[in-house]
Amino acid sequence: MEKLLVVNNVSKNYGDYTALNDVSIEVEKGSIFGLLGPNGAGKTTLIRIINQITMPDTGSVILDGEPLKPDHVRYIGYLPEERGLYKTMKVGEQALYLAQLKGLSKQEAKQRLKYWFDRLDIGDWWDKKIQELSKGMAQKIQFVVTVLHNPKLLIFDEPFSGFDPINANLIKDEILKLRDDGATVIFSTHRMESVEEMCDHIALINKSNKILDGKLVDIKRQYKNNIFEIGLITPNHAATTASLKEKFEIFPTTFKSINEELKYKVKLPDSVSTNEFVNYLTSQGQLTHFVEVIPSASDIFIETIQNNQL
Amino acid sequence: MNHLPLIIKREYLTKVRNKSFVIMTFLSPIIFVGIFALVAYLSNLNNDTVRKISVLDESGLFLTEFKSTAQTHYILLPNISLDEAKKDAQTDETYGLLYIPDSESLESISKGITFFSEESPSLPFMNSINKMLESKVNTLKLKEAGMDSDVIKDLRININANQETFKGEETSKLGSGLKLIFGGAAGYLLFMFIIIYGNMIMRSVIEEKTSRVIEVIISSVKPRLLLLGKIFGTTLAGITQFLIWVILILVLMTVVTSVFGIDPSAGSPSQQAIESTIDGGTQQVLNDILIEINNLPITNLIIMFVLFFVGGYLLYASLYAAVGAAVDSETDTQQFMMPILMPLILAVYVGFFTVIDNPHGTVSQVFSYIPFTSPVVMLMRIPFGVPIWQQVVSVLILFGTFIGMVWFAAKIYRVGILMYGKKPSYKEIFKWLKY
Fold first, then answer.
1. In DSSP terms, which residues pair with A27 in a beta bridge?
2. B374-395 pLDDT, tens per residue?
């Protein structure tokens, strides 16, 4: 896969404080890249470096095969976490101004704005001042301004904050659509369910260092422990439990079910294949539930950070 | 991609369309002219009242001196006692009673002169009475000593030393006054401009920070460009406001003076007094003023005014912008305002005291090179004749410092605009320079 953005060994110090330590990431074209990490880990610094707001002390950033240069700002759309608009400016004027700063002509900006305003059904806001809008409404304008110049690379820092669930979904669908249309997205958030839903690739930054990086599915595969959740109806629950305990490591579990059954999480040793395990279970009784336990993004996040702190 | 015009345009339009800006632009001249008109009207009203003064001259020496005018009527009382005169004066509602006793010697007469009144009389009025009596007594004394006052008048010669520079240009005291007015006005204008519009720039930077729009903007343009655009845009808005002020004040003044029939150049008694001392030579004085204005290095003044004004203003404006970037809200700006205002106030002090005293002294010279004071001090010195090379050196230093200051301000700005939360200390700001 072609890389749109390559960050090579970037470090950044503020005085004695190290904000980023030798961080490298690669973002594939047309993918959604999740940039995760606890507060103060250095995500925003990395994003600011990509946006050329701050310069790295060492290391380099390559966008679409070229080292980052001032002209590149027009290929990047950035929705910062600390965001806002000029409160006393009118919506339309402000959007035009910001679009022109990104290199669009006034004419073109007007056309595209009309398209987006119609699409998000906010056309009649054109002459309103930002201070007359609610926070969610202002966020919509902010989103439009971010994507208006059709950037190749979109960077969203907590894009859903301030949105109600309906609008959050709307924005999520728009982001996915932009991805389908060829844009590449870097996505920084603490909302793990959105990561789960949207990201193809994640990198985890903790205390200025990258501690995890890879495709989400690969990481999940790497983090799964061969644990299965089972439900089993047997003539004699106690005997079966004893037999299970003897052969495997088991943990009690709960899940919703209409049956009275044995519910356990079972860790399979590498020597036992899934098929052998299923055969064994069916020999014990009626198998009603069999699921491989796959760690969620949230589990992975917490586990990795905790291990890193040790 | 040159965004500077775009940024300047936005900054300009936002300022100009701002409601309080519009209101201030049109209200200030109205208030200014209104107050002027009110004061002129009131003092006119004051002048219309006629003062009746009773005079009891027991010595009989001064009787010929009291000549009634439109505003002052002297009532010479016949030979009555002081008590009666007092009573009369009170019942007649006169302004006061001037009592001159009779005595052997002029000295004791002078000592006995008393002015009785209900309330204490106005100072200018008492001065004019005293002066009048004094000159009469002096004349009488001279006569006593056997000297003719007319002869003495003839003997008196007024000296008004001619002033000429080595290059042969004639100068005069009048010219020095004019120079002071020119220089002082230029310096003061710059001072006001810096304070009013420097603050405006600072507020606009703070607004960008508090509305959090800043990070969106600087992901599109370089902070230095934004800083420059802000300074230029606000400056243009300031010039617009200043021009409107000047035009409006001129127009309103003309209207007010013609409608209310107030002649601002005449009116108050003190002015009349001054005019009478000039003794009908008003035309001559006007001519002198015109000649002096012609003698001023006009071209030099205008060019240097523009250069120093622009340079000085930009220098301070970038400082104001840096302060705005360093803080979160306007209330936090106090500790950083002092170091900006100090040199500015110092410049005005040096300008109005030292330069007036000695335009080419060491202190004046030194301060006209220091970039933070040179705009004001040098502007005040130039009318007195400063060699061109000195002016050029000072301008070069000023603009050099301006460039350095923009670099410095941009550094603080770049880091400061992304810092939220706590108010930074000087130490921290110094550290930002190294980021």
1. A5
2. 888 888 888 877 888 888 999 9
pLDDT band at A22, cuts 50/70/90? very high
Q: Which two tokens stand for residue A282?
A: 């069916």
Spatial contact of A152 and A68, defined as CB atoms under 8 Å apart: no
Helix, strand or coil, per DSSP, at residue B400: helix
Domains defined along chain B, listed by start: 48-155 (3.40.190.10), 174-255+281-432 (no CATH)
Tally Cβ neighbours within 10 Å of residue A88.
Answer: 15
Question: Helix B173-210 vs helix B298-326: angle between axes, to the nearest 10 degrees?
Answer: 30
Element containing residue B315 per DSSP (H, E) = helix B298-326
| Distance between CA atoms of residues B74 and B104, nearest Å | 26
* Residue range B110-151, pLDDT digits in tens: 888 888 888 788 888 888 888 888 888 888 888 888 777 777
CB B391, CB B304: distance < 8 Å: yes
DSSP result, B148-209: -HHHHHHH-------EE-TT--EE-HHHHHHHHHHHHHHHHHHHHHHHHHHHHHHHHHHHHH
Torsion angle in degrees (nearest 10) through CA of B138, B139, B144, B145: 80
Q: Which residues in B lie closer than 8 A to residue A48 (C-beta atoms)?
A: 418
pTM of full prediction above 0.80: no
pLDDT computed for residue B171 by the predictor: 60
**Domain extent listing, chain A:** 3-221, 225-292
Distance from the Cα of A213 to chain B's closest Cα (Å) equals 26
ipTM over 0.85: no
Residue A264: strand pairing partners: A230, A252
Query: Closest to B6 (Cβ–Cβ): which among A82, A87, A100?
Result: A100
Average pLDDT over residues B258-267: 57
Residue tagged 């958030």 (tokens): A189
CB contact under 8 A, B420 and A82: yes
Would you give the end-to-end CA distance of chain A in angstroms? 36
The Cα B333–Cα B201 span in angstroms is 13
- Find the DSSP H helices in B211-297: 214-218, 223-260, 269-278, 282-295
Predicted local distance difference test score (pLDDT) of residue B98:
86
Asked if A15 lies within 8 A of B435 by C-beta distance, the reply is yes
- Can you state the angle between helices B334-349 and B298-326, rounded to 10 degrees? 160
Q: What is the pLDDT of residues B191-221, one digit of tens each?
A: 888 888 888 889 888 888 888 888 888 888 8
Gap between the Cα atoms of A43 and A41, Å rounded = 6
Of the candidates A15, A48, A88, the beta carbon closest to that of B431 is on: A15
**With an 8 Å Cβ cutoff, are A103 and B1 in contact?**
yes
* CATH tag, A3-221: 3.40.50.300
Measured between beta carbons, the chain A residues lying within 8 angstroms of B435 are 14-15, 54
Task: Look at residue B145 in the predicted model and tell me its pLDDT.
Answer: 81
